[in-house]
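Protocol step 4 of 6.
Sequence for Sugar dehydrogenase (Citrobacter koseri) entered exactly as in the expression construct, tag removed. Do not edit the line below.
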Amino acid sequence: MNGSTDGLVEFLQLTGKQAVIDWLSANATCPNTMVDRITPRPAADLPARIKAQTGIDDKAPVMGETFIQWVVEDRFRDVRPALENVGVELVTSVIPYEEAKIRILNSSHSCIAWAGTLIGQQYIHESTLTDFIYQIADRYVTEDVIPCLGDNGIDLPTYRDVVLKRFTNPHIQDTNQRVAADGFSKIPAMIAPTLRECYQRGARAERYRYAARTVLRLYGAVAQGHAAL
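Step 5 output, structure tokens:
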């Protein structure tokens, strides 16, 4: 979670700066935040395109989709900036938003990338627009993830639809290989909690099992030289 007060205090404790810790406790807050925006690996011609359009010689450009979500806990000391006027969502807790992002967006993003890579597709939008892959992601989120998240104050079906629509954007040119990389490291945070909660509810988590098989088959194909990440 971004913006953790506890993390900052722990760092200061390691430095032994108690006076700074005391000042921080009395004068400042560090609200937790969550940011969501897809930023693919910049295309090789991006610096030239930027220079042609703006005259700026940008040595480290970043690409991003038009969608952006910034959620901030409304825990400010005294006066706070009117962040809501520029689209920031001010909430009591970012945890429901963070859980939705990790377990709906991140997990379905990876599932789509794993499946797309296995069938030789290059881009996320290609794979999302492939009907059987879309159906797998949609049903995984609908049947396995959303029931686990429950009534958390977010319209999860709408969130799911917005997420999958974002993945179909052909202008992002986000590659399956970028998203599919480090697949095993993503399972504990993105997918395993849903599996655990499905079993706790007595549900079978049918779509989860497909996701697990897909990543295992992908790494098997990579090991045999039949796919690349």
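Step 6, annotate. Residues 1-30 form one domain.
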